[in-house]
Design a protein that fits this description.
six-stranded antiparallel barrel, 3 domains, Alpha-Beta Plaits, 20 strands, five-stranded mixed β-sheet, alpha+beta, Dna Ligase, domain 1
Length: 506
């Protein structure tokens, strides 16, 4: 089942204007409109959220908007710059899926069929997409559905800010939406309202022939596209410097072994292009165009730049089962949508042994099965505060050279959050005699400490005087724990003097 994301940017022109202005951009609370000419009149072509909340609407005369809103900032519209920036944004969105196109004037469409699991699921994918845009100053709404038409409608009339339609939804998610959600001409919408139609469900209940006779085939085509009865081709954008190869077939192909054979040929040809540019591929997109104009896409990623024909072929062939050839594939395109400089490694001689095994091939295989974010390793961070001294990095990330403190042992398991315990202890320097954790009382047999950890005053004012005293303790069952007391045991301003378990020694 196909899945399509529609990304709606309701204030794209004004957002782009503010981003382009940079540090001299007007603040978000200042109402801003962009105006252009409509015949001999100057009318509002775009208004930000602040201006809209004060009653300004697109199509309103510029003079009326200025009278309506005191302190309104008026700038000239630049539709060409808006379109070019939207194209660049679509290229950026290629990181989410191999098939992305613009939906002018204020949208982007992404075919995410089979790619959502790489981003933590559809809900997490939409939240990540909207969140990244929000951090860049771009307001966005997004929806995912079975078709471009349905996703387009939900993104503009349902998403707040995201909406996920169930698979195989048909017309169910569209019935209560207004006629404008069908992407039909405004004059057709006005004529339908004159006839008494207000919702899409009312149109679906009518015979198709009278509607086609009166309004032409476009209305029926939009309805079929929205409910998923008619396919809608998504022509993906491509960066100008994209390295890609393609092959067209005189006779459509469909057998898995045939697809695998041509994948191998395309990979070999792509590697020659990569070698000529001194590059290695970090991400490959295989796009298969069927005879019915449907497009099947496969994406694989690599943890490091790769130019190994055998390895790249295997990663792509592992995904052949996700390709539905239908009545046959008439063209295959393979692109390195993410390429980086390829660093050559010195080959080991018989007198020099490899110091470490190359596990990048294994990492690539796992990454393409469960998602890039699911494969990682823990790396040290220069911080004495235990929960800040570790972070997740990509599995094949270079060693930063930072290490964990070696003067005091650290537990093999650090709890996600310190858990409070009830203790019996003498203040200020003695370890607890016993402690109760998760409902079980444990008597301490041995202890070592304290190790004093100070707060990082340069991060938060509250940590100026914050102190923790850590102890390694062993209970009567031989289990070892990492406990700390919040505060120095004497001054109440340094902490609450409560005890916590922060880790467990193996």
């Amino acid at each position: 089942m196909a899945r399509v994301v529609s990304l709606f940017l309701p204030t794209w022109p004004t957002d782009r204007f503010r981003r382009q202005a940079g540090y001299v951009a007007p603040p978000a609370e200042t109402p801003l409109v962009l105006v252009g000419r409509q015949g001999n009149r100057r009318v509002v072509t775009a208004a930000d959220l602040a201006a809209q909340s004060m009653g300004v609407r697109v199509g309103m005369p510029a003079t009326k908007a200025q009278v309506l809103v005191q302190g309104l900032l008026v700038k000239d519209a630049d539709p060409r710059a808006d379109a070019e920036a939207l194209e660049r944004l679509a290229v950026w969105a290629l990181r989410f899926s191999p098939i992305v196109t613009v939906d002018p004037p204020d949208g982007i469409v992404i075919d995410t069929t089979g790619a959502d699991h790489l981003h933590g699921g559809e809900t997490a994918m939409l939240e990540g997409l909207i969140g990244r845009l929000a951090m860049s100053g771009v307001t966005a709404q997004a929806a995912v559905a079975d078709s471009w038409g349905a996703a387009h409608a939900l993104a503009r009339h349902v998403a707040r800010p995201a909406a996920v339609a169930p698979s195989d939804h048909g017309a169910a998610v569209l019935r209560d939406l207004p006629l404008e959600a069908l992407r039909i001409a405004p004059q057709v919408t006005a004529a339908l309202r004159t006839l008494g139609f207000d919702r899409i469900g009312e149109l679906l209940a009518q015979p198709r022939a009278p509607l086609t006779l009166r309004f032409g085939p476009e209305l029926g085509r939009r309805i079929d596209q929205a409910v998923g009865d008619a396919a809608e081709l998504i022509e993906s954008v491509r960066p100008a410097d994209l390295i890609e190869v393609r092959r067209a077939f005189a006779e459509p192909i469909g057998a898995p072994e045939t697809i695998a054979r041509y994948i191998s040929k395309l990979v070999a040809e792509l590697c020659e292009r990569l070698e000529a540019g001194g590059l290695g591929a970090r991400r490959l997109d295989l796009i298969c165009r069927r005879v019915d104009n449907d497009v099947q896409a496969v994406r694989v990623g690599m943890a490091t730049p790769v130019r190994d024909v055998k390895r790249m072929t295997r990663l792509l062939c592992d995904k052949i089962e996700t390709i539905a050839p239908g009545f046959g594939i008439e063209m295959m395109t393979l692109a390195a949508t993410l390429a980086e400089p390829f660093g050559r490694r010195q080959m080991a001689s018989l007198l020099i042994e490899e110091t470490a095994a190359d596990v990048s091939d294994l990492v690539d295989t796992l990454m393409n099965r469960v998602g890039e974010r699911a494969i990682y390793r823990m790396a040290p961070v220069a911080s004495d505060v235990p929960e800040r001294s570790v972070c997740r990095v990509p599995a094949m990330a270079a060693d930063s050279g930072t290490g964990w403190p070696g003067h005091w042992p650290r537990p093999s398991r650090l709890l996600a959050h310190p858990e409070p315990v009830e203790t019996v202890a003498l203040l200020p320097d003695h370890p607890p005699v016993s402690f109760t954790w998760r409902g079980v009382r444990r008597r301490v047999q041995r202890a070592d400490g304290p190790e004093r950890v100070f707060g990082e005053w340069w991060k938060r004012d509250a940590e100026l005087v914050a102190v923790r005293d850590y102890f390694r303790v062993e209970d009567d069952a031989g289990e070892r724990y990492w406990l700390y007391r919040a505060g120095d045991g004497e001054d109440a301003t340094t902490g609450s003097h409560r005890w916590f378990v922060h880790g467990v020694f193996g």
